[in-house]
Design brief:
- The longest helix has 18 residues.
- The protein has 19 helices and no strands.
- By secondary structure, the chain is mostly helical.
- Helix content is 83%, strand content 0%.
Length: 334
């Protein structure tokens, strides 16, 4: 299990899954001890990182059920927290908040400061994704303070990445770049490729907002290459969607549409509603500007309209311009 975890951290997911399956195969038939739950949890983490959400949900739920049935509480918070991350990415935000708040309460009751920091950050993520920015800021700051007090480098880097997003949304670009540069140095020192890819993508977004086309493209393309290597479909799609936005704002609509099309293809595979809605809205604008055929245009806009309930929760991520456009589409004014 430990070797599988090390392989996971370096991005070698296939080898990590092989190691973890071997560990499970070595256990006696019907064994329900903590070793089985731990191996299932690590497998769930890899499935989540590679956007295989249904598989992640199944093995993580089994790990949680084993822990509860045996009356063990040592890893209960972790399993709840990981289920929260998976359900968040599946777009089940209320369920995700329930899991994560339970995980946070358990960690606090047990006096686990590192877990408290991690779950605080993840609660903040759900609040951010549902447009509750003040609550997100509160939980992010709490998580960063705890991570710094513990000198937990990975936790610090992750918190910096999320603080950078809020700084960017507030137009504080120099502050955001400072967060990302510090986080990238830590991620590279730790060899955390998934974290490095996320921070590179976020850095590209700041340069995009600043109107600096070349550094934005460079950072986003590095992020795409790194997440492709890791097999992170959602990560690749997110960066491609941002490259689409970047080219759209630069007036390069044909190139933008190519990026959006590839992002949509990947997101339909992974089933991540959060990013799918965003890319559909942004891609619809480019598609209309390119004068798509009537059938294609109707199909694309119908897909946006079908996600109206989710779209309302995603206004922060979609951004004011794209969300306003989506509202016009849904009202039949485009």
């Amino acid at each position: 299990v430990r070797r599988g975890h090390l392989l996971e951290l370096t991005g070698n997911y296939e080898a990590a899954l092989d190691q973890l399956q071997e560990a499970l195969d070595l256990l006696p038939s019907g064994y329900t001890g903590s070793e089985r739950a731990a191996a299932l949890d690590r497998m769930g983490s890899i499935y989540w990182r590679s956007s295989q959400y249904q598989r992640a949900l199944a093995v993580l739920q089994e790990a949680l059920d084993l822990e509860i049935a045996a009356g063990r509480r040592g890893r209960l918070a972790r399993y709840l927290g990981n289920l929260g991350l998976v359900t968040k990415d599946m777009g089940a935000y209320e369920q995700a908040l329930d899991y994560l708040q339970r995980a946070l309460a358990t960690a606090e009751a047990q006096g686990h400061r590192e877990d408290t920091a991690r779950f605080s950050l993840n609660v903040g993520l759900v609040y951010w994704q549902t447009g509750r920015v003040d609550e997100a800021q509160e939980y992010y700051q709490r998580a960063l303070s705890l991570a710094r007090a513990l000198n937990h480098k990975r936790g610090i880097a992750t918190c910096l990445g999320n603080m950078g997003v809020l700084a960017r949304l507030g137009g504080r670009y120099a502050e955001a770049l400072g967060y990302y540069q510090e986080g990238l140095a830590l991620a590279r020192d730790l060899g955390e490729k998934a974290l490095e890819a996320m921070l590179l993508g976020n850095t590209g977004n700041v340069y995009m907002d600043m109107g600096q086309f070349k550094p934005a493209v460079d950072a986003l393309q590095q992020a795409v290459a790194m997440d492709r290597e890791l097999g992170n479909l959602d990560g690749v799609a997110r960066h491609l969607g941002n490259l689409g936005d970047l080219h759209k704002y630069a007036g390069k609509n044909v190139d933008a549409a190519g990026y959006f099309d590839e992002a949509l293809h990947l997101l339909r595979q992974s089933g991540n509603k959060y990013y799918l809605c965003w890319v559909l809205v942004a891609g619809a604008e480019v598609g209309l500007e390119r004068a798509l055929g009537a059938a294609d245009r109707v199909n694309l806009l119908a897909e946006v309209a079908a996600m109206n309930d989710e779209g309302g929760k995603l206004a922060t991520e979609i951004g004011r311009r794209e969300y306003a456009f989506a509202s016009r589409v849904l009202a039949g004014r485009v």
